[in-house]
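Example record

One chain of 208 residues, shown exactly as stored in the release files.
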Amino acid sequence: MQDEYRTVARAGVHETEVNRSRFLCSLAPVGSEREAQEFVAAVRKEHADATHNCWAYVIGADAGVQKASDDGEPGGTAGVPMLQMLLRRDMRYVVAVVTRYYGGVKLGAGGLIRAYGGAVGEALDAVGSRTRRRFRLATVTTDHQRAGKLQNDLRATGREVRDVRYAEAVTLEVGLPDADVEAFRAWLADATQGTAGLELGGEAYGDV
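Predicted structure tokens for this chain:
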């Protein structure tokens, strides 16, 4: 697994105009290929009257899934330059749809490549990016008396408390860098006089 990856900070739409054609780039962070396809379908439905709805997406921290569509534009003039822009900016788990409303002036292959790639680049600048880093999920179990102070201590030391569940005992889910696991184990034993339980889970990604 990659240690970290970048994606867009939020969903957003950015509009540009090239020779009277309107280009609306819709961007969104997505967790899977299915989510990307659903986003494309939603934009196509919203802009069903557009001349073209071209799209590209990159899924996986290692960019393992890369797909693009020209949606009727000349081959290689829309989806591919959109995909190349996403990859050039190191974007992952992201989908882009560029909706074109034709303005009556033909752009030619070079013009289309610049327009579609440029629309994605400008949209990325507009919505911004965020970095997500790989971490190990750790489940801490403690009693109700210590739970409140332990939560405060965890946050004070910069550790992310992702979830808290109350039952007979209190369970806290914490995200830890792999390199921090043993130090955290020692810290937890010291902070709770050895009364808290620690169970390591799988790996996931979280915001830096």
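Notes: The radius of gyration is 23 Å.
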